[in-house]
């Protein structure tokens, strides 16, 4: 009965899309691509950045399916924006089975939607003896930069500096994504806003490059804005490890997944258009 109940839920879940299609994958030039063809391409890459909407339930399900598919034929390492670098030891200890779930929740600052959206990925890593790397800068350091500027990071202790990209970190304000952030608010331009975004991108890129193992593919989960248009994390990976072959996935929402909007051209190597009516996890 339990299996049947779960199957009914899954069928209902996947039936939201127009004409019964909850999503459609496209290439960067807007051509429809099957899941199998996307995986075939991604297997060749050193790093895969899966850009997400944090509250998109189907997007999280697709992350898990993509990870499982790549893990069948490649040795993989996982990493995520959702875990901050000063919590890396706690995440590693849990994945290796050294602490239980209660201790894990006490040692690691888990996002509110961890259980619904990220726990399946962590449990997959644990069950398959995979590394899962916390890559994101501690939020308090990004807030410090936002409030007081890049120079404020110099006040961090040596231990704290181990949790961020090496200082001074490269920064290119001319990147379109950062330029967009500068003009995001009509009332003022806050120059530290894109810099706070950049320290996140830089730290994630740096630790992806640091923990990328020879012969292993690194799959990283992050908000779509961190890797869209091959900027953000991608730009920093090109600074820290230009030899790596990097592929990106992103998601967008639409009322009709069979229509590809021109604005999405070149957004990523693969663009997953998800039905806008899919339930959100928060």
Automatic annotation (TrEMBL):
Pfam families: Cofac_haem_bdg. Residues 38-237 form the Haem-binding uptake Tiki superfamily ChaN domain. SUPFAM superfamilies: EreA/ChaN-like. It comes from the Bacteria. InterPro entries: Cofac_haem-bd_dom (IPR007314). This is Putative iron-regulated protein. It comes from Myroides indicus.
